[in-house]
């Protein structure tokens, strides 16, 4: 029996002084139960102690119930941790999808810019001839006179024609034909204003074929041979994507960091920063 006037819930250590060691499991409880369950365990065992050793069954039931509550609490904590990890993964995937969407939009704008370059080059070379005056009405022609021949339709210069045809083939998912046309353009007109864009799209064509090693070679030519070209940020972005596809996160990270550092205001740099954040998140989860 407890001493008269002794408090019923003063912790678990007081119970170990009972004769016969009836409640020695309290030492185990004190060592392993969470702090939020200790007082409840102590009170339950103290109440059992007041009834004497004859109440062993009730004390053991209390211990079993507390252990069950502890297990349930642990399960809830594990479930909460798993939900938090899943939420983080979903957020990372969302950021990746947003970056991919921005990349597609940027590629569409790049295609439109390429067409604008072609049109500007055509205008610089004189453009198509002016439209001829309207022919006289059929009734005003002399009997038996042949209709006037239509002027020949102006054809775009060869570099512009090759570039436009190659882009059409890329959109049609025919990268092999696009590589042939762009390589022809680069070999015949290496100093043409469209040369940097053509070199970039050669790399893109190899990426479509999933030949990422060759794509890296072609994309690096944009950075090394045309360092002042506006295509350099896009080339660095695609270099990082090729490294990622090859399972080389270090190479991807280096390319994207260089892009963000050297061209911080470009659209490609914004996407590179999002990709870097996703890469860091994946590295943390793998650890």
Describe the structure concisely for a colleague.
Helices cover 69% and strands 0% of the residues. With 287 residues, it is mostly helical. The longest helix has 69 residues, at 56-124.
How would you describe what is shown here?
The protein is built from 10 helices and no strands. It has a domain at 85-124 and 157-286: Tetratricopeptide repeat domain (Serine Threonine Protein Phosphatase 5, Tetratricopeptide repeat), CATH 1.25.40. The two termini are 54 Å apart. The chain is 69% helix and 0% strand.
Please tag this protein with its features:
287 residues; mainly alpha; Serine Threonine Protein Phosphatase 5, Tetratricopeptide repeat; 10 helices; elongated
What does the secondary structure layout of this molecule look like, with pairings?
Blueprint: H1 25-32, H2 35-50, H3 56-124, H4 158-171, H5 175-188, H6 195-208, H7 212-225, H8 232-245, H9 249-262, H10 267-286
Helix pairs in contact: 2-3, 3-4, 3-10, 4-5, 5-6, 6-7, 6-8, 7-8, 8-9, 8-10, 9-10
CATH structural fold name of the domain at 85-124 and 157-286: Serine Threonine Protein Phosphatase 5, Tetratricopeptide repeat
Low-confidence stretches: 1-33, 126-142, 150-154
Q: Taking Cα atoms only, what radius of gyration do you get, to the nearest Å?
A: 39 Å
Order of helices and strands: HHHHHHHHHH
Mean pLDDT comes to 74
Backbone shape? elongated
> In percent terms, what proportion of residues is strand?
under 5%
CATH architecture of the domain at 85-124 and 157-286: Alpha Horseshoe
The helix content, as a percent range, equals 55-70%
Distance between the termini: 54 Å
Count of helical regions: 10
Count the beta strands.
Answer: 0
Give a short account of the largest sheet. none
What is the assigned CATH homologous superfamily of the domain at 85-124 and 157-286? Tetratricopeptide repeat domain
Structural class: mainly alpha
């Amino acid at each position: 029996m407890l001493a008269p006037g002794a408090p019923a819930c003063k912790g678990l250590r007081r119970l170990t002084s009972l004769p016969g060691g009836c409640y020695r499991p309290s030492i185990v409880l004190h060592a392993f139960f969470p702090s939020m369950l200790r007082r409840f365990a102590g009170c339950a065992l103290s109440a059992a102690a007041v009834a004497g050793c004859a109440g062993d069954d009730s004390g053991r039931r209390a211990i079993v119930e507390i252990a069950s509550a502890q297990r349930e609490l642990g399960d809830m904590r594990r479930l909460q941790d798993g939900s938090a990890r899943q939420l983080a993964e979903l957020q990372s995937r969302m950021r990746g999808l947003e970056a991919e969407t921005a990349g597609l939009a940027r590629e569409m704008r790049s295609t439109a810019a390429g067409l604008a370059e072609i049109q500007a080059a055509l205008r610089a070379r004189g453009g198509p001839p002016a439209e001829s005056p309207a022919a006289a009405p059929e009734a005003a022609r002399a009997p038996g006179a042949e209709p006037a021949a239509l002027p020949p339709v102006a054809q775009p210069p060869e570099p512009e024609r090759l570039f436009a045809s190659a882009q059409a083939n890329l959109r049609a998912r025919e990268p092999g034909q696009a590589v042939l046309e762009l390589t022809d353009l680069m070999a015949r007109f290496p100093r043409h204003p469209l040369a940097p864009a053509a070199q970039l799209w050669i790399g893109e064509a190899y990426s479509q074929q999933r030949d990422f090693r060759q794509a890296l070679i072609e994309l690096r030519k944009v950075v090394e041979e045309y360092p002042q070209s506006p295509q350099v940020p896009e080339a660095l972005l695609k270099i990082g994507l090729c490294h990622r596809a090859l399972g080389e996160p270090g190479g991807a990270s280096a390319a994207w960091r260089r892009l963000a550092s050297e061209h911080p205001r470009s659209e490609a740099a914004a996407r590179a920063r999002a990709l870097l954040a996703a890469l860091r998140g994946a590295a943390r989860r793998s650890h």
